[in-house]
Amino acid sequence: MTLSKKPVTGMKDILPEEMEIRDYVIGVIKDTYKKFGFTPMETPCVEHLANLNSKQGGENEKLIFKIMKRGEKLKLEEAKEENDLADSGLRYDLTVPLVRFYSQNSNDLPSPFKALQIGPVWRADRPQRGRYRQFYQCDIDILGEASNLAEIELILATTTTLGKLGFHNFQIKINDRRILKAMASYSGFSEEDYDSVFITLDKMDKIGVEGVAAELEENGYAKEIVDKYLGLFDGIGKAENGLLYLYETLGDALEESVKTGLKEIIDSVSATKSSDFTLVFDPTLVRGMSYYTGTIFEIAMPELGIACGGGGRYDGMIEKFTGKSVPACGFSIGFERIVLLLLESGFKVPAQNKKIAYLIEKGVASDKLCDIIAEAQEVRKDGTQVLVARMNKNKKFQKETLTAQGYEEFKEFFAR
User: CA-CA to 258 of 20 to 30 Å: which in 22, 67, 131, 276?
Assistant: First the structure.
């Protein structure tokens, strides 16, 4: 039997050129986030299945790669359903593991705790451009900070990082789940219907207002309720200040703290930002995770046409583990999509150290080979990157390949 050379569907091999960019991006992310006071930490790739299925991950809970029970725990003959066979799974994001980590270790952590976590996650999703079944996430979270300072710091840290990677003219869209609920309540939807309404609203950019109206009516909602609801979005679009229009229209249906909070975040970020982007209120922004309780935000890149990261406040999540209410807010940067954009733009990692290749012809004597390697070791001491390799028959192609990898100087050693 011939073994398969291709990766498993939805996974991919990473070639050296891309790996160099990925390492560089992770380096910029870590360096920038640390300057904002975020502390690196790590959680296991495997998580308790009960935690992953705790109705906090939205649609992602349908995409879990489950791990079968092992040894005596696996009782195939007694199994009646899938969960009888599995007790753990690969994490589909970094937030659920972070909350479990914090719940277990909070006594040993500062308050507030500013967490930085980078690692792979898995989702049994349909692969497409910029989306894989195994991919990296880069998260920053602030646990224990109830004020808007958390949102402001998260947005500034993320946008500063994107600026350092060369991105500009992008958008940070911002909304609040409490605004979404207030708009739905004002229009006449019952609370148990909110999630269904928001799922349809989330399609606004794909199917438009007419498509949203049609789908809501197909789902059984009265036309007058749908018209009143979509009339709010029309009013926001026509108003000089959409956020102010919405506050005035909703009146007491919206808490005062929500009104002042979103304005404070927008004003503070806009006044202190160091990167070229715009922060815009988007009343159609929903975010898929059901654990969000307040402010939500998303990165929009015009080059990609889709979101390149997002996050928000999830104040009720830690309580499910500990019974104690702890405020929490996080922002995840779309690492894979950022790397994709850099690759497609022909991005080259800035040269940090000189790169020299020592090419040794076959047949060089052992004592001379030792001298060459010793020389390379000496040159490496000042930070120079030295590749020691055998000289190929097609030396011209070999040098062209190495030049493409950033090697700017070659030393050749011959047997004669």
Answer: 276
Token match 């002042």: residue? 260
Q: What is the pLDDT of residue 72?
A: 73
In 3D space, the residue among 339, 314, 240 whose CA is nearest the CA of residue 58 turns out to be 314
Is residue 2's pLDDT more than 80?
yes
Domain boundaries, the chain: 7-167+301-350, 168-280, 355-413
Give residue 304's pLDDT. 67
Q: Which residues pair with 310 in a beta bridge?
A: 298, 332
Distance CA 61, CA 68 (A): 17
Mean pLDDT of the chain: 90
Contact 216, 226 (CB under 8 A): yes
Cis peptide before 112 (omega within 30 of 0): yes
More confident residue, 243 or 162: 162
In angstroms, rounded to a whole number, what is the distance separating the alpha carbons of residues 176 and 151?
12
pLDDT for 157: 96
CA distances for 269 relative to 154, 260, 277, 302, angstroms: 10, 14, 10, 21
Contact between 225 and 231 (Cβ < 8 Å) = no
User: pLDDT tens digits, residue range 252-275?
Assistant: 888 888 888 899 999 999 999 999
